[in-house]
Amino acid sequence: MSSKKKSLEIETLRGLACLLLVLYHVIGPLGGGLKMDVGSPFRVIADSMVYVRMPLFTFISGYIYSLYKIRGNDFQAYVSGKVRRLIVPLFCVGVPFSVLQAVGPGVNKDVGVIDALLSFYVPVNHFWFLQAVFIIFMFVGLLEWRELLQTMTRQYLLLAFAAGVFLLPPFAVDAFGINGAVYLLPFFVLGMIGHEKVTEIRQTFRVIGPVVFVVISLVLLYVATLDRGLIVDRRSLVGLLVGCVSCMALLSSNLQARWLIWLGGYSYAIFLFHVLFAATSRAVLGRLGVNEDAVLVLSGVVCGLLGPVVLSNIFSRFSLTSVLFLGERATRKKPPAAVASVAQS
């Protein structure tokens, strides 16, 4: 596989991660989202995804990092790129969203205005992922820049370190999403290792991998049905093992689905904006008197997936909005002479 060629299997997994993320936020935690009771089958589905959802997102980030990882002495450019990609949308999308949540009517989550304005420091919404993964990129990128991850042995040692820190008690103050970074780091490093060993993994586990993932999913559904208290602790040894095994099982499956590949291409926009569209869907249907859970979930998932796709295509048309709201590089328009010469060539 070419080092910079898109993998359809990884894009499929990225689309799957988007689907799981949106489905969870539509259903919501207890007291949030659609406020479904513990006995609801949709509540069981939401709880059963906890060990797979964000680990898979982060595993993919680590895998893709290994394709484009820092090389040579371009650490400053690397940092600038991550600031543009992660921190700029944090301020331009994350903070305004939190403020809107604080002052908007009919919002499930009680967020104070001050907490919303300071959400770039102590996370209050799903944007904690931006802060957490930024810390991870800086940490791993620095190690890479100093040539401390040149061998697989060193990457395995980093995975062991990440797993050990993962099992420690969380920090009292989640400054800049540090607890999220500790939670996600093992899955990011595992994604790096997965990229380096992808051929061997798929050759060895191509048959058993999908079976393992299906079995894990069924067991999680069963446990969530019996007692959700057994399954909601993400930072636990069980959470670590289930998350790692699930990610590797999915990687080995060589799964390809065209609609998931298409969704995967918009994964960042879906992450940033899905809650806005899902909440709007819930509010509109509520005003119309629709209270059927299945309809609310389906509508929320469809709007949460497709709304950001539309918004991404609009923002990408303009350099300023693509930078501020999507973290993309600023595009420079070619002068007319250059355009003409390209057209004639």
Describe it.
The chain is mainly alpha-helical. It has one domain (8-344). It is built from 16 helices and no strands. It has helices at 8-27, 41-48, 53-68, 75-103, 113-117, 128-145, 152-166, 178-196, 198-205, 208-226, 237-252, 258-264, 267-287, 293-315, 319-326, 336-344. Helix 6 (128-145) packs across helix 8. The radius of gyration is 21 Å and the shape is globular. The two termini are 31 Å apart. The model is unreliable at 333-345 (pLDDT under 50). Belongs to the acyltransferase 3 family. Keywords: Acyltransferase, Cell membrane, Membrane, Transferase, Transmembrane, Transmembrane helix. It is a multi-pass membrane protein.
- Main sheet record: none
Helix content: 55-70%
Show unreliable segments. Answer: 333-345
Tell me, briefly, the overall form.
globular
Number of strands: 0
SSE string: HHHHHHHHHHHHHHHH
**Total helix count?**
16
The whole-angstrom Rg is 21 Å
Number of domains: 1
Give the overall pLDDT as a whole number.
Answer: 88
How much strand content do the residues show? under 5%
Classify the secondary structure makeup into a structural class: mainly alpha
Distance between the termini: 31 Å
Q: How is this structure best summarized?
A:
One of its GO terms (cellular component) is plasma membrane. This protein is an all-alpha fold and 345 residues long.
